[in-house]
């Protein structure tokens, strides 16, 4: 068999890896959208590098857009196979993909207004909500720790990856020419001391491992606790400067962590008394999905739930629904906290909030997670003084802060712990994906040090024999 890496290859987005078995079966691991790749983004999302109509199965590790975001486009281009996921992943994918379709249509309309004034032809969104509806009909639920035969001689097993609700590491057992090959795809690996979720599970010995490497050279543990950092930044921005705090945050995972931390501050009597807005209809839906699956919470969260029936609700919090309400926040001069998607500030309502507040030094833009270097969030995190938003340039006068301890991705130690259940001498090859190349080279050295001698860093569209 072969595997070809069509995304998240030496970059942290667009997860997409295609297995071709000797009998002709094609299995795609994830179908993610590229995000924050600058001028390359549209081109990368417009061409898969393979024929979707020839893919037999799609296995989805979790519902983040950089892992599931191109599924509707793939279906529109001829994919008719089965999509395997956990139940929470299917629930989240439905709302995330519909939201993605809506954002694309809205942003395309906004951009086309500008293009029309410049005499340029209009653009089309990658897909629509109708395309999403067609894609959701193909989903098939597989529970954690269940051996599921997707076709004769090919067995799938999910284990909890601890990254977001429903996230799974993918394990395939494939019988070819009388010999079993066991392959593991990590998806995204969570943290072993996550604020909300259970730790990643161990798994059986594998021959080949495809593992993410986002923070393969970083260590989260020595960083300042989240609650204290949030309290200080809110006080500094809203109370002392009288400004607005804008927080780009992914609707799934990061937003719920922020709400949980703010709720914890209220329980301790330390929450600054200002309005808090979650400006993302998707975030409210995602939060509800998380509430419906309390089994995913870790022990600490369950102890808090014993005294607080709603761990994501606190005084002053309001979820914003309509676009009109969202726009009104920009007209309101009063200090407040606005949490809005997307996390890389590349799309969605937060991009409009940044555009309207970036020029005022009283305001703060707070980045709370990894951003692709060429994304708007990445440029702000690096301290760029002039940024382009919707084709126009803006001076960065607002203060930009970064909290690096907030990540749903495991650090180097977490990734090594995830692999600690394996005998390195029995692993034929480890493939590093979902990471920047310089980070991957450092993580490869760490893997070599603990006994994984055959480590590869595949490039875009590169094929490997297994």
Automatic annotation (TrEMBL):
<dbReference type="GO" id="GO:0016787">
    <property type="term" value="F:hydrolase activity"/>
</dbReference>
<dbReference type="Pfam" id="PF10996">
    <property type="entry name" value="Beta-Casp"/>
</dbReference>
<dbReference type="InterPro" id="IPR011108">
    <property type="entry name" value="RMMBL"/>
</dbReference>
<feature type="domain" description="Metallo-beta-lactamase">
    <location>
        <begin position="13"/>
        <end position="250"/>
    </location>
</feature>
<keyword id="KW-0378">Hydrolase</keyword>
<protein>
    <submittedName>
        <fullName>MBL fold metallo-hydrolase</fullName>
    </submittedName>
</protein>
<dbReference type="InterPro" id="IPR036866">
    <property type="entry name" value="RibonucZ/Hydroxyglut_hydro"/>
</dbReference>
<feature type="domain" description="Beta-Casp">
    <location>
        <begin position="255"/>
        <end position="380"/>
    </location>
</feature>
<dbReference type="InterPro" id="IPR022712">
    <property type="entry name" value="Beta_Casp"/>
</dbReference>
<dbReference type="GO" id="GO:0004521">
    <property type="term" value="F:RNA endonuclease activity"/>
</dbReference>
<dbReference type="InterPro" id="IPR050698">
    <property type="entry name" value="MBL"/>
</dbReference>
<dbReference type="Pfam" id="PF16661">
    <property type="entry name" value="Lactamase_B_6"/>
</dbReference>
<dbReference type="InterPro" id="IPR001279">
    <property type="entry name" value="Metallo-B-lactamas"/>
</dbReference>
<dbReference type="Pfam" id="PF07521">
    <property type="entry name" value="RMMBL"/>
</dbReference>
């Amino acid at each position: 068999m072969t595997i070809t890496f069509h995304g998240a290859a030496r970059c942290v987005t667009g997860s997409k890896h295609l297995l071709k078995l000797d009998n002709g079966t094609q299995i795609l691991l994830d179908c993610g959208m590229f995000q924050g790749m600058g001028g390359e983004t549209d081109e990368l999302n417009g061409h898969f590098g393979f024929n979707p109509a020839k893919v037999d199965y799609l296995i989805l590790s979790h519902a983040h857009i950089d892992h599931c975001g191109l599924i509707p486009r793939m279906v529109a281009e001829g994919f008719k196979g089965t999509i395997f996921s956990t139940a929470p992943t299917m629930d989240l994918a439905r709302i995330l993909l519909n939201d993605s379709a809506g954002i694309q249509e809205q942003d395309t309309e906004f951009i086309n207004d500008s293009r029309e004034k410049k005499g340029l032809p209009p653009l089309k969104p990658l897909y629509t909500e109708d395309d999403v509806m067609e894609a959701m009909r193909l989903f098939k639920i597989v529970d954690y720790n269940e051996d599921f035969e997707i076709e004769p001689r090919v067995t799938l097993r999910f284990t909890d990856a601890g990254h977001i609700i429903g996230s799974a590491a993918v394990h395939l057992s494939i019988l070819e020419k009388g010999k079993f090959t066991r392959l593991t795809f990590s998806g995204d690996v969570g943290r072993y001391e996550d604020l909300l979720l259970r730790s990643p599970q161990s798994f059986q010995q594998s021959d080949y491992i495809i593992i993410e490497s986002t923070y393969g050279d970083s260590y989260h543990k020595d960083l300042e606790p989240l609650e204290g950092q949030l309290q200080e930044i809110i006080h500094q921005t809203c109370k002392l400067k009288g400004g607005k705090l804008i927080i780009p945050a992914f609707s799934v995972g990061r937003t719920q962590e922020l709400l949980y931390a703010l709720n914890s501050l209220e329980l301790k009597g330390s929450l600054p008394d200002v309005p808090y807005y979650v400006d993302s209809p998707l975030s409210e839906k995602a939060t509800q999905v998380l509430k419906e699956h309390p089994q995913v919470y870790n022990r600490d969260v369950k102890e808090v739930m014993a005294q607080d029936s709603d761990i994501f609700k606190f005084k002053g919090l309001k979820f914003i629904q309509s676009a009109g309400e969202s726009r009104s926040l920009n007209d309101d001069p009063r200090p407040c906290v606005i949490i809005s998607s997307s996390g890389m500030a590349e799309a969605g309502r937060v991009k409009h909030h940044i555009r309207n507040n970036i020029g005022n030094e009283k305001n703060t833009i707070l980045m709370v997670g990894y951003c692709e270097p060429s994304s708007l969030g990445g440029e702000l995190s690096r301290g760029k003084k002039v940024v382009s938003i919707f084709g126009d340039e803006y001076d960065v006068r607002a203060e930009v802060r970064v909290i690096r301890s907030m990540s749903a991705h495991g650090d180097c130690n977490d990734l090594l712990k995830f692999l600690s259940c394996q005998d390195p001498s029995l692993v034929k090859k480890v493939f590093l994906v979902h990471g920047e190349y310089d980070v991957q080279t450092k993580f490869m050295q760490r893997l070599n040090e603990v006994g994984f001698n055959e480590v590869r860093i595949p490039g875009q569209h590169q094929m490997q024999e297994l």
